[in-house]
Amino acid sequence: MSLTAIDTAPPPVDHLRDDRLLQYWLRQVQLRLRRELAWCWFQRSGQRDPGNGVLPPPDDPLAEGAHWVFDRVRREWFFGHDAQARELSTAIAAEPPREEGAARRGGFSWICHRLQLDAAARFALALALAHRLDSSIGPLCASCMNDLSRPFPSLALAQRLWHQPERLAAVAGPLHPLWRTGLLERPETAAQGWLHPLQPSPLVLDAIGSDQLPPGLLPAGPVRPRPVPRRPLWEARLALEGQAPLPVPLVAPADADHAAWAARLGELAGRTVVVVTASCLQHCGAAAVATWAWLRGVDLLLPAGMEEAWREMAGLTLPLRLFLPVTGGVTGEAVPDGATPPFHLPVPGFRERLQLLQQGLPEVDGGMAQALEECARRFRLPEQRLVRLTRQLGGCAELTPELLVAACRDESGSDLERLTQRVVPRFRLDDLVVPADLRRQLDELRRAARSLTRVHYHWGTARAWNEGGLAALFHGPPGTGKTMAAEALAADLGLEMYRIDLARVVSKYVGETEKNLARIFDAADACDCLLLFDEADAIFGRRTEVKDAHDRYANIEISYLLERMERFKGVAVLASNRRRDLDDAFLRRLRWTLAFPLPDAGQREEIWRRGFPPAVDTAGLDFRFLARQFPLSGGHIKSVAFNSCLQAAADPRAEPAPGRAGRPTMGQVLLQVKRELQKLERSCGPEQFGSYAGLLEEES
Fold first, then answer.
1. What sequence ranges are listed for the domain AAA+ ATPase (predicted)?
2. From residue 116, how far is each of 65, 122, 186, 288, 394 by CA, in Å?
């Protein structure tokens, strides 16, 4: 029966009743217990079993053990002379049924044949199963053992019931198949062996008697057709050699669809794969789960990070595969001894992601078809998330490109905010006041970013450029609009923007900086965003000659960063005040280099006008004089405007025009210009303020 058809399965078949060999041995348990109780009545009280269901009275166990040789002779005599015991012995001597046809895998008959169990071992296993199937035999076991504190079967009880007690000594050995396969739970110490409860796990009983999946075990899902890299080699590695569990490491990101790949590899090996939940391992035990899988003839996909589980399973003699998700790199802890070489699962590329989107959203028009392509390139979601995304969007009444992009962005679950600072874009490209040539370069950069999908996947540049994105350098003096332009670019392209916080990324510990950068780029590759490396020269500074260990490790960090920049799939904007400090090798890896110069007088006048909000009354300000007289950058001009508004709001003399919120005076603005020049350590004599010097003196 297929494990993937649980919901539509017919009512469960009672395989316990259908197994004739199991029924024979369960009857053997019943008959031998009844015969032993008859002997206990005679031994302890000299009376026959009254047959009314009353158990024989307990006796001194030490006295009983001291006369075991004499009692054994009397016991055989009793079995031959007592009418009830003789009748039970005749029934016990019945021959077992002949095996007809192939036994059902996992059933009692199959176990006996597969493990080549002798009669004594079959009886011990049946005794353990009988207690699981009928708890009422617990008091019978305690009475037979003359110990009311042990209402369960044990090897000591099996030896007492079996007509050849010495044969049970082989079953007690730790290498017996009943223990090595996990059919019976092992005693913790060898001293407990004979008195340890003979009990199979509930999962073992479930496998023997049912075809259903127990709670906590899930089918790996329908096997979707997918190409398998190096298929002949992978098939050879999946072959089971020997009788030990075979760990199969599956190396992929944490959110990859390990279950789907395990099902595909199981198909190559001709086996079904079952997913094991952490709760099942916790409540049932790893050994019981492995034994269930062996009985059912399936392989297992274990939860990630459950090293103790496969270590416990490794102690069993069970030929099955244990698929192990490995998400944190191939290390000795993640990959056990005896495992196959790691299976590095391929990450879905653009074509695979697009196909999954198209299959999940088949009813889309022409405009949405282009949006699907854009999302397939921009959001490198793993297969599992894409399937979940399309299932959710399939229920939308009206699907738009904007809704699709928003859903993909939410599903990407970006992890960038831990190591970066998210920036909400405040500006548009029309808000920039820059030279005409710089405006054209920004437009070219914007068009290039919009054309990545078509050029990479329709024109065929993806392979040559490794599906690379765009990296641009914005360099120029402070306050010339580099960060503002990056925000405007992100807003125009509909990208989320993250600023790299150097305090969180750069570490004094060797190798930690590379790890932090790797986390940033990995997360950014998946969620489609714009990365802003502010003050980039602090990270990408000119590489130094190696004079000590610090220089050597600094160069390693820079080299790693340059290599990741080349492979980055999104848009990276690097803002720097000192272009000359940047490494030449780094500059060769940039697609764009945009210079942001200080604004000229005309641009400064426009910045002055835009620096004050529309609700502010600026009728009394001479913007042309301010722009011509003070060569400030846009950032400094905005700072002056803001500080002027603050002073004007605190001045009761400022009476704005009707409908306006406030009115800064020319004197207040000039005073803030003076403060800004002092902050920049520039000269600010009265001659610079021209005819407005008197206003400045009054304001001061």
1. 468-596
2. 33, 10, 20, 21, 55
Angle between helices 202-209 and 119-133 (to 10 degrees): 100
- The one-letter amino acid at 286: A
Please give the C-alpha separations between residue 224 and each of 255, 257, 379, 382, in angstroms, as whole numbers.
Answer: 18, 12, 22, 15
Structure tokens at 250: 């599956």
Q: Which residues of the chain have pLDDT under 70?
A: 1-14, 61-71, 189-192, 223-227, 328-335, 366, 413-415, 501-504, 508-509, 537-558, 581-583, 585, 700
Run of H or E including 628: helix 623-629
Residue 269 tokens, joined: 């090996």
Measured CA to CA in angstroms, residue 579 lies from 124, 330, 541 at distances of 83, 40, 9
- The CATH code belonging to domain 423-595 is 3.40.50.300
What pLDDT is recorded for position 552? Answer: 47
Token pair 């190696």 is found at 546
Interior/surface letters 575-598, b for 16+ CB within 10 angstroms, e for the rest: bbbeeeebbeebeeebeeebebeb
Do 601-699 and 213-344 have the same topology in CATH? no
Which amino acid is located at 192 in the chain?
A: Q
CATH code: domain 213-344 is 3.40.50
**CA–CA separation, 377 and 613 (whole Å):** 39
Cα of 636 vs its chain's centroid, Å: 47
Tokens 């969007």 appear where?
Answer: 393
| Number of other residues whose CB lies within 10 A of the CB of residue 545 | 6
- Please give the CATH topology (third level) of the domain spanning 601-699: Helicase, Ruva Protein; domain 3 (1.10.8)
Neighbouring-strand partners of residue 592: 472
* Structure tokens given for 401: 């490109």
CA distance readout (Å), 450 to 371, 446, 490, 593: 12, 6, 12, 18
Distances (CA, A) of 191 to 149, 174, 180, 194, 367: 18, 12, 18, 8, 75
Nearest to 352 by CA among 460, 449, 225: 225
